[in-house]
Structures are given as C-alpha cells and as structure tokens.
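Suppose a colleague, Dr. K., hands you the sequence of a protein chain of 688 amino acids and asks what its three-dimensional shape might be. Before reaching for any lab equipment, you can write down a predicted structure in token form. Begin with the sequence itself:
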Amino acid sequence: MGARKPEDTRSFALCAHGGAGKTSLAEAMLFDNGNITRMGNVQNGNTVSDFQSEEQKRNISISTSLLTLERGGKTFYVLDAPGYADFTGEMSAAIRVADTAVILVSSVGGIEVQTSKAWEYAEHHNAPVSFVISKMDRENADFAKVLADIKSQFSQNALPVLLPIGSAEKFTGVVDVLKGKAYTYKPDGSGKFTEGEIPADLAGDTEAAKEALVEAAVEMDDGLMEKYLEGESISDADLSRTLRKAVASKRIMPVFALSATANVGVAQFMDFVADYFPSPVDIGAVEGVEPKTDAQFSALCFKVMADAFVGKLSFIRVYSGTLSSEGSNIYNVNKGEDERISSFKMMTGKDGKDVKEVIAGDIVAIPKLQSARVGHTLATKGGFSGQFSAIEFPKPVYSVAVIAKSRADEDKLGNAISRILEEDCSLTFEKNAETRDNVLSGMGDMHINIVLAKMKERYGVDLDTKTPQVPYRETIRKMAEAQGKHKKQSGGHGQYGDVYIRYRPLERGAGFEFIDSVVGGAVPRNFIPAVEKGLREYMASGPLAGFPVVDFSAELYYGSYHDVDSSEMSFKLATRLSFRKGIMDANPVLLEPVMDVEVTVPEQFMGDIMGNFNSRRGRVMGMEAHGKLQVVKAQVPLAEMFKYATDLRSMTSGEGSFSMEYSHYEEVPGDIAKKVIAAHKKEDEEEE
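The predicted structure, expressed as tokens, is then:
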C-alpha cells in the first residue's frame, strides 16, 4: 500500500434529487469493475450502498455510503449521498470532502429541487462539477433538453464528453467525444460492448462537442492557445494535460449520457474519471488551513456511524501527509485528546478492508475512536495546529415532542439520543424547561420516523410523539399601576410588605427593565433587590395563560414597611400581588414566534404554495426565480409550521424543499389567543 500516491486518487460524491439513479450508478460501477458478481437493485433492497435496514425497507438512501474500488491504477472513493430533502445534510458533507461533485440529472425528470441544492453545495465548497444525464433508456428521455437546461440554469461550461446513441428503448450505446469512438452495448445489462465508428447522424454533434472541449482546454495554457488559434493541431498529450486542469478549475464541467440500470456507458464514465477527474494534488491545499509541511498528517472527520459488529466508525478524509496504523496515535485537535489507532478500513458499503497506511486523498474509516465527532480535525500531535472549518448542516425544520413509553425507555433515552446525535448532525434534541417538552428536531417527518425506528432497533427505546408546545409569550399594551400589600400576623414576628409598581410596555424584543424610583426610604434599600428578584421570578409565568411575560418595564415608585415585620420574603410576596393585578390591568396579550420561511419549488406548484401560506396566516415577503424553480420567502407563525414538511411533500409530490428560522414575536389574533388561553387553563386544571 505504501506505493500508492495521492495523484492516483479520485474521490467524488454522487449527488442528485431522489430517484435520479445515484445508487444504481454506484452498483453498476462496482459490477463493471469486478467488485461484485451481480448487480443489486434499489427496489429489491440488495444494493451495496443501501445496506441499512431502513434504506432497504424504504428503497431510498438515508445516509452517505462510501465505496472504494481500484481501476486503471487509480483508487476511486465514491460517496453515494442521499437525494431526499430530509437528508440533505449528508449530501453537503459528502461534497465537502470529495474532490469532485458528480450531479445526476434524470433525462426524463430533468432538473429538480435537490439537483439545484447539490449545485449550490458544490458552488459553496468550490468543488469541481460533472453532470450525469441518467436513465437514457427510459421513455421520454431527452438528452438535448436536459443538457440545455443544465447550461442555462447552472453553467455554460457544462460540455458533453459522452453522447447517447439513441434514447428510450433505442438507447444502445454512447459516443466518446474525445476518443472519437462509439461503444455499442449488449441489451442484457452485462455491461459488455463493442467499439466501432461513430454513427453518421452523430458525426456533426461529436465534432462540435470535441471542438468545444478543445477550446476550453487550451484556455488553460497560453502557448497551446496560440497554436490553436494559428490552426496547428494539439497533441493528445497536451490536450489530456490541459483537460485535467480545465476540469479541476471548473472551466469544463463534463457531461455524460448513460443508463445505470441498463449498464450502458458506465465503463466509459469510469475511464474518464480515471483519466481526467482531479486528484488531491490538482485540487491543492484546503483554504485557510495548511500543515507545517506536506508530510505532516491532517484529516477531517465527516461522518460517524454505529456498526453492529465493529462498533463506532469515524470516517475521515486525509488532506496531507501519511499515517500508519502500526503503533500510531491520532490527535484530535478540537478536543486536545490523543487516541491509539487499531486500524484503517477502506469501506465498500458495510464491509471494510484493513490497510496499514493512509495517504493524502484517502477516505477511510477508523474503528473505535472515542473522541472524534463530525467536523473534528485529526492530526499527529504537534504536527498540525489549525482546525478545518466546520461542516455546515442545514437547520432542522420539523419537530416532535418525544415521550418515553415506559420508565425503562426513559432511563435509556439519554444514552440513545446522544449516540444518534453523534451520527446525525441534522438532528437536534432539546429539553425545553419552559414547555417541559423533550423536542427532537430534524429535516422532515421521514427523517424523524427513521430516527425513532433506529432508536428502537438499536437501543431498545420506544417513544411516542406529539406536536410540541409553542413557546408563547405574554406582554402588555398600556401603562398600569398596581399596589401589592402583603400583611400577615400569626403570633411572634408578622409579615409586612407594601409596594406600588408602575408597568409600561416596551418595544418588541426589549425584554424586561426594572426601575427604582423610590425616594425618602418608603421602601428600604435592602428590600428593593427582593422586589426586582420577585418580578423576575413571577414574570416567568404570566397571569394570562402562564407564559413568560416580556417587553415591559416595572417601576417601583412607592411603598411602606414595618420595622419588625418586614422581610425580603414579605416584599417578594407583595410584589407578586402587584404583578398579577398590574399586568391584568395593562391590557395583556399573547405573543407567538414567527418564522422566516424560504420554500423552493417548481413553478407549477406556486398557486398551491401561495394558497397554503394564506391558510397558515402567512405573509409572502417576496419571490424570485432560480431557473425553472421559484423561491418564495414568507413569514409564518411557528404554530402553523409543525406539519409543513409533510404538507409540502404532499403538495409538490416531493419536489419542494424549505428552510426555516426564527424571526420575531408578534401578537396572536384575538380569536386564536382565546382558544390557546382556554386550552392552557384546561391543562392546568387537569394537572391539578
């Protein structure tokens, strides 16, 4: 293994909208390369990539799978990333660590929501991109139309390198534009083909495609450009060298026509990957972080997985240096901890092959690292002081409150949640002290359902769910004054406290302000902190419906005391009486959180989206076109958004996606406020 070189490594992430054929392409690559003897099928749940029980049950990818194969003296690391919106964080992490993003676009369905998301992630990470126009054997396949859409919506640098011979049931092979050869396949899925001359009806298209590739390639070299402009021929060696540069710099984004399930064009795709996809050497150092020398080991942990047999696996991308598993430690820069390495595993689905050494560009798994988390920088102690920038994951948009079904489930919940959170960075879990809900948040109902199934299967934790409580607030709309007088005599020392407090509304988001305006010692200085402390305690549960009171000032301006009977507790109790009366006299109202929502959908669904926002009390703030997709920005109350992920999927047949984050609080309409207040008073009565 020591003979391996970084320049012979090719890593790429297969990304797409769900159902475009990523996992089928990965399966065909393994089959054509001799790694497996029979091609599995996504519908049958027997592919190498989709090995988790939930993936096989649902016939979709839910987690990025790593495949390793050797071809033409090159090591391929293939990251098969999920294409459904609920698992978009996995796609982002895969593109982050791969040297190229391969974006599949269905020749039938064309560009869809997650296709655009893959492009956005690739742009964000400045990753080289290639496009695979897949499913060319399907009815209504249209290579020319999809290529034109890719060019118009993404980049004019998308240039075909494999042209289809026919389409739908007449799709029989591909033309390699650079080699000037046609490859005709047997129709039995064996991947066997014969090489021949280009069909006459494709000669013009092939010539035009090669000319576009040559023009783009020679731009990478001034000398070659001059020769080309003067009409001199470009040698194959010069063309090959500059083509690789053009792909690495995104001047060329290669486009391939193929069908993975029919196994047509996959071999030519892999040959192009070996010859022209960038290596880690072509990509260069990761921006912002450089080791002291190229020889010093550095890596990024981008995925953590619980394996039933090996235990915890930490997936890393090596960015510099080499490291041996024999007697070596690995240093977690983020945690400041050193750990012994037992082995490195080159993974193909769930199976791993042990290797003793890793080099720059490798993507491998390390078993049983205790400290490593997604986003952590790993190195050798003293050799690397920086940290790679964190991997960005989308914010959760769908939440449920989870309730343990039994005491045993409750006891195991904490451990199970912490393990699941290690693996899935698109999840959050919060014990909300205010609403007393245990809130599990993810990217959609499918995401959450899969997490709950994992927790039951792996850790024996059975959970019920309910809609989380909305964290309402209370505030006031006018000024009010209220006296609070607490007087109690029961033998010995009595209790006496007397306060006059003026309550005023503040602007939204201002919080709470305490003002001490007492003069002449009407309330002794040593009791004033007790008044403020009492207000801060009592405002946590407002008189309207028990929600925190916000955005008001409380001015203590008068009171009285007793030399013997007054105490801090007496003044706190007096403050409570003033607070309850004063807030109720100040026209209290209920506030609700409002979210900024951004929805991306094909334009044919715009009417449904707009109407649905209206039904949710939403306000559309703006719209903009992204190619054939529309982005709608709106503000919607959180109370109306808990089931939106499910409804959006239903409205758009799974083609819509959205993001959501907190914006501000605003007043709840009167009729809705009455229902909320009544419901909470009923809950309080039932608890009593």
